[in-house]
Amino acid sequence: MDKIDFKKRDKPLYTGKAGRFDRVDVPQMLFLSIDGAGDPNTSKNYAMSVAALYGLSYGLKFLGKTAHQVDHVVGPLEGLWWADDMAVFTTRDKDSWKWRMMIRQPAWVTDTDLADVRAGVNVKNAKKKDAPTDKDHIDRVELPRFGEGRCIQVLHVGRYEDEGPILADMHQRFIPENGLKMRGLHHEIYLSDPRRIVADKLKTILRQPVENI
Questions:
Q1: Residues 6+ apart with CB under 8 A from 9
Q2: I need a labelling partner for 150 at 20 to 30 A (CA). Which of 49, 175, 185, 205 fits?
Q3: pLDDT in tens, 112-128
Q4: Under a CB-based contact definition with an 8 Å cutoff, are residues 119 and 125 in contact?
């Protein structure tokens, strides 16, 4: 049984070099997603939302192997971020952030597959005394298709809190100097597990959709 690994198959979308801004064309892809707001470091809603995404993602992986004879590597966590004042991303005012957390899914996943897995995850979750999420968050996860088209992205190595200067350089210098303007939402792809990697070595793709001025 072959195993799909998005990071290897679609390598340009998940790689880069620190300090180098790359142009990429991002096609439509299938995701599990859930929306929320607030500081991801302190918000219980954020933690429960991410737990719901992972629970369903691994449930779909298991369903693929048992029911469809297909396998895939669960994709990295991704986030779309926005605010009423987009300057908060360079000032890092996280309490003002709004977010849509996502995990990419293989093309075979359908609404029926998600419904089946959702029911099973809810049953298992209800039996746990200290479950990392709850039925409300699990039921709020959606299965949209999402594509961004032309984007500028860069690999950031280091703490999430240190993204401000490179984002300012991308937004205020590189994008306008190349005859472009921002559109859509700021996008981050978390290539490292912060539970296992020291903060100074975390790898994150920072992506911004653009269009011609």
A1: none
A2: 49
A3: 999 999 999 999 988 88
A4: no
CB atoms within 10 A of CB 33: 22
Nearest alpha-carbon partner for 164 in 197, 206, 211: 206
Q: Quick one: how many helices (H) and strands (E) in the chain?
A: 7, 11
Strands 3-4 and 71-72: parallel
d(CA 16, CA 18): 7
**How do strand 22-26 and strand 3-4 relate by DSSP bridges?**
unpaired
The one-letter amino acid at 76: P
Q: What is the pTM of this model?
A: 0.93
C-alpha distances in Å from residue 5, one per residue of 10, 75, 184, 198? 8, 8, 27, 24
Q: What is the pLDDT of residues 156-177, one digit of tens each?
A: 999 998 998 999 999 999 999 9
For residues 133 and 122, what is the distance between their CA atoms, to the nearest angstrom?
10
User: What is the number of other CB atoms lying within 10 angstroms of the CB of residue 147?
Assistant: 10
Q: Which two tokens stand for residue 37?
A: 């707001």
Place of tokens 């996943």: 109
Choose among 12, 9, 8, 5: nearest CA to 26: 12
User: So what's the architecture of 3-212 in CATH?
Assistant: Alpha-Beta Barrel (3.20)
φ and ψ of 108, to 5 deg: -75, -15
Give the C-alpha separation, 101 to 49, whole Å. Answer: 8
